[in-house]
Amino acid sequence: MFTNKKSLLALSVVSAIALSGCFSDKKGAETPPPVEPPPAVIVPPAAPVALAPVANVNVIDAESTDLVAANISFFENGTASTNIVDIDGNVTATIESVDGSFTFQLKSGASVSEITAIVTADTYITKSYVIELEDLSEGNLDVQLKLISKETAGVATAEVTGTVAGGATPGEITANVADGQAAANVTVAAGTILQDADGNAISGNSISLEVVTADTSTSAGTAITPEGLNAAESATTLSPVSVVSVVMVDNNGVKIKNFSQPITIEMALPAAKGFTTGDELALLSQNEDTGVWTTESQKLVVGDLVAANNYYNTSFAIDHLTTFAGVKESATCTVPVRILTTGDAMPADGLYVDVSSDGVNFSKKLKANNPIFVKLNKLSKRGIAVDTKANLVITDSSDTVWFETAEEVNLCGDINATLAGPAVVNETLSLVAQCSNDTSLTVAASGALVKYSLTNKSKKVAKDQGEGTYALRNLLEGSTYNVTVKYKGSLASLGTKAYTITADGTDETQTESIVCDTATGSTGSTGGS
Fold first, then answer.
1. Under a CB-based contact definition with an 8 Å cutoff, are residues 186 and 263 in contact?
2. Residue 526: is its pLDDT beyond 70?
3. Would the pLDDT of 5 be above 90?
4. Spelled out in words, what is the top-level CATH class assigned to the domain 155-330?
5. Quick one: CATH architecture of 424-520?
6. Secondary-structure class of domain 332-422 per CATH
7. Can you give the pLDDT at residue 172?
């Protein structure tokens, strides 16, 4: 029996040793391979969304049509606008344009049919313009604002200085300007307290007084008159027959807007306007800081004839300063102004029409598909009476003349114009963003603001055709154009780029390099090619 027990024990040990092999801690072929990280994938950005319509504004010299660097302030009913935004969406009531060209949009949800823009520039006469915005919802809006140089024929300016003590004038201050029928005189009596816009006496010890006037028997008078003199849909229309701007500033930069007693202002009234000694005209004033016109209780009184220069001297007494206009009242035109064109086809984006005479002065775009130049409800606003006549010059943004009248024509009704344009070509500009970390990946640079122009001339906004392509229209064949591109949305990091092209009818492509994002995984890109 003992022998058998040992045998059983030996068998148990052998079995245990054999079974222990099944639970070995050795790592061999059964261990799974390590997990490899997913490959890196270059992901180009999504294509930017299309840019909403913009108002494209160019401030130009009225004679040379070159761009003019200017400061622009926007107002609505005399209050700084809160509805104007730049193309980055920032609300702004002022723009400093270093080259005279700028764009803006309306704030989302804003309902604004017009805006007043007050434009100032060195050596030019400050003027306010009424920009109609009703067509902005249909696409880009082109506007030219023509500034008048102080050296323009028919315009006369004078600037004098004076001393101030305790906010008052120790002696009489006078400023006189006379150049033919452009004549004006301002007299501030001794002892007059000079006040700011709030009625406070100024603290400066000296002042400068500038007087600007123009010959209203020519288009110079209407050219310097701020827009907005007339209301829309009025049965009567006002036209300026005497105009003067008077600005007084102390040595601290404070504008004198009010006086403790009336000052005397005289203006020339050309005899050809049809008035005579003893007549009284309505007098309106415009606040040059807000663009608002006001009818004064005082009248402009017609005095003696200055026979040597064939004008009547007119005068009024007033206790505040601004721009003043004596006006003539006429019945408003009752039919729309239409320009019926023949000859060369009008460019798809229209042409500018410059209207000027001693009764009216403005510039406006004529659409290619609509002969109506001034709508029925805008006739009085534009100052168009039943008997208004004017010269018309039709140009493109490069200042090439397509048509001009040989003499003044009636504005009320239809005007025939035979267009004769220059040799032009059209091109397509394709904008592409390319990943610098994988040059096989690109994205169409849609949604950019693309502007193009001849040197120093009005800039046009290129029409976005989608997929990063932009139409450069009506290029003067053989000319060199400057193109600027402000990239937007996902490509905003590219900033603004400048290019030059030659107008030869050959489509253009510009590629810019960007560093694209890197992602992990095996999926493809979301925005490139």
1. yes
2. no
3. no
4. mainly beta
5. Sandwich (2.60)
6. mainly beta
7. 97
